[in-house]
Design a protein that fits this description.
mainly alpha, 8 helices, single chain
Length: 286
């Protein structure tokens, strides 16, 4: 199946993708701006600031080229500076968002790993306590666990008490093991960073910062250039084409006339030089 880039479907698909990417970038920066504030008012201000900067970087880049096409260089410079400022602000916001999200994910996984470790430690403690309890002796020096037939047939009071506590401990052990199964296995706080760290030999903090910066750069490139993708290009009309061709012909004509004029001047100078030389020769003969 061949996708024609000039087809309406292809343009619609590209427009939807670019709009979605730009929207995600605006949402990410707005989300980060909201969490910069400490009160509702400051949250609203930072969010609005982030959204306005994102809109500015989308709109200002096409404006730069539009002003340049009109010869308004000062306006183009102003639009370019606004675009550059918006890109820098957006990049810092995107970097902050990516870093904050990765930090949150790592912290949540670390807490989960600690809970799993605690659950496994509890299982180990209960198993050790049960094995230790099997060594308990009665007043006559016999092992209660063995004398009660592994607590299958306790008859004496001390055996009944021991076995009651023993089965309660087994129930606790079963619940602890179920908790370990439900919690799952210990995992890397950030598997992606861990994999890159193993492959490159770099520290995890270095990898994490590099990935956050990479996300910010890619996001800002896509968002800031999205306005150019939607900038309309207009084909010249027939009248404009004729005017351009006429201007080109006139420019060529003027250039040819200028060259011809220069050649005539050069020819006159050569003729004058030859005439002056003949006069000098004739004067010498006299």
């Amino acid at each position: 199946m061949e996708l024609n880039p000039n087809s309406a479907g292809a343009r619609l698909l590209a427009s939807a993708a670019i709009t979605g990417l730009a929207g995600c970038g605006i949402f990410m920066n707005a989300h980060f701006g909201w969490h910069l504030g400490t009160t509702t008012e400051t949250k609203v201000v930072f969010t609005a600031l982030s959204v306005c900067f994102d809109i500015a970087k989308i709109v200002c880049l096409p404006l730069v080229f539009w002003h340049l096409s009109k010869g308004a260089r000062l306006n183009a410079f102003a639009a370019g500076m606004i675009w550059l400022t918006a890109v820098v602000y957006g990049m810092t916001s995107a970097f902050g968002f990516a870093a904050a999200e990765r930090s949150t994910i790592q912290a949540e996984q670390q807490i989960r790993n600690e809970r799993i470790a605690e659950a496994k430690a509890k299982v180990a403690r209960l198993e050790a306590n049960i094995e230790k309890a099997k060594l308990a002796k009665n007043s006559k020096g016999g092992f209660i666990f063995e004398n009660s037939g592994s607590c299958l047939n306790p008859t004496k009071e001390d055996s009944k008490k021991f076995c009651s506590e023993y089965f309660a401990a087994l129930n606790d052990l079963d619940r602890a093991r179920d908790a370990v199964k439900a919690a799952g296995e210990v995992r890397e706080a950030d598997p992606q960073i861990a994999t890159f760290a193993r492959l490159t030999g770099l520290g995890r903090d270095t990898i994490g910062n590099a990935m956050a910066i990479g996300i910010a750069i890619v996001l800002e490139l896509v968002t800031s250039l999205s306005g150019m993708a939607f900038a309309k290009t207009r084909a010249p009309t027939s009248e404009e084409a004729r005017a351009k061709a006429r201007a080109t012909r006139e420019a060529k004509k003027k250039k040819a006339e200028k060259m011809a004029k220069e050649r005539r001047k050069a020819a006159r100078r050569r003729a004058q030089a030859r005439q002056g030389g003949l006069v000098a020769i004739q004067g010498g003969k006299r």
